[in-house]
Write a sequence for this structure.
């Protein structure tokens, strides 16, 4: 239990408004709940959210210690009272989330709170599976990431051992990930491998495609299989054989088949025609192809997972069964 003594400059404020400023990590909905269930008292008595505070009042707060801290990047998950997740699979070691397009995976210059990792940490905190107070350094972490406007499967590790194993398996190409995309034009041949060199411009956060080695360029190989062609668009399955920034988007554009809705590498006129503002790209399939010992995650060997639906595939290629 903690106490706040109301000073002259605090007097006259509504109780809930004072507490929202004094405890910025406490979500408004949770604050209202705590007042309602009497975990907030004024001078030892039950109080109302809209009551006015007077100088000399003493608030008794029966609230977890972490909500009294100042906001930092590592505790902003506390402000998410109702985490929103589409969970594809979960056990004691990992969680597979189907990330919606438009959500960033980690905090960036445009978003600090509404991130996938914050939603996952809030979810696990509320389940009482994890609390930063119980740990010296570990926090649930993402093992892979996808762009803001790309949807699909992201792996989260619930403990340090799982994180170490998955990081190594991803590095050693022992986890297979496949993407679906809607690309412009018809692919001939219908399946094959796109090979090029990608040169990243850090300032523009964009890559350039070359079909010959260039200084600073990294080789990129993308296996593809066209599944359906309709109305000038191809539904294509893509598998990364290398892991480069914007690899599918840039490689397909370099081959003359930019993704529908892609604002960096696509065609603005076509995107406007279809009314698409996000690249039609979805990480829809994952398989644990462990070739070496996987320790506590050995039970995942050979397991495969697939999202329930890919919105743009349903929209432009109805009836496709992959």
């Amino acid at each position: 239990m903690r106490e706040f003594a109301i000073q002259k400059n605090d007097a006259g404020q509504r109780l809930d408004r004072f507490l929202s400023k004094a405890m910025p990590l406490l979500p408004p909905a949770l604050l209202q709940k705590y007042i309602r269930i009497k975990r907030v008292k004024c001078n030892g008595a039950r109080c109302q959210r809209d009551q006015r505070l007077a100088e000399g009042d003493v608030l008794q707060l029966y609230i977890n210690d972490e909500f009294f801290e100042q906001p930092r990047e590592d505790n902003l998950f506390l402000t998410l009272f109702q985490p929103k997740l589409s969970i594809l699979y979960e056990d004691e070691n990992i969680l597979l989330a189907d990330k919606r397009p438009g959500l960033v995976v980690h905090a960036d210059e445009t978003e600090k709170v509404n991130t996938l990792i914050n939603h996952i940490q809030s979810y696990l905190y509320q389940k009482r599976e994890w609390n930063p107070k119980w740990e010296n350094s570990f926090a649930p972490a993402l093992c892979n990431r996808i762009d803001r406007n790309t949807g699909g499967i992201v792996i989260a590790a619930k403990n340090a051992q799982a994180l170490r194993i998955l990081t190594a398996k991803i590095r050693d190409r022992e986890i297979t990930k496949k993407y679906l995309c809607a690309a412009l034009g018809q692919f001939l041949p219908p399946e094959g491998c796109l090979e090029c060199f990608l040169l990243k411009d850090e300032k523009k956060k964009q890559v350039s495609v070359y079909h010959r080695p260039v200084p600073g360029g990294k080789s990129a190989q993308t296996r593809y299989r066209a599944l359906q062609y309709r109305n000038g668009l191809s539904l294509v399955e893509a598998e990364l054989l290398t892991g480069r920034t914007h690899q599918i988007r840039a490689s397909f554009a370099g081959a003359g088949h930019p993704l529908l809705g892609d604002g960096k590498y696509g065609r603005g006129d076509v995107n406007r025609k279809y009314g698409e503002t996000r690249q039609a790209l979805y990480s829809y399939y994952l398989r644990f192809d462990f070739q070496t010992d996987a320790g506590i995650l050995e039970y995942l060997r050979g397991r495969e997972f697939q999202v329930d639906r890919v919105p743009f595939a349903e929209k432009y290629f109805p009836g496709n069964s992959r």
The first helix runs from residue 15 to 22. Residues 86 and 98 are 5 Å apart (CA to CA). The two ends are 57 Å apart (CA to CA). The mean pLDDT is 94.
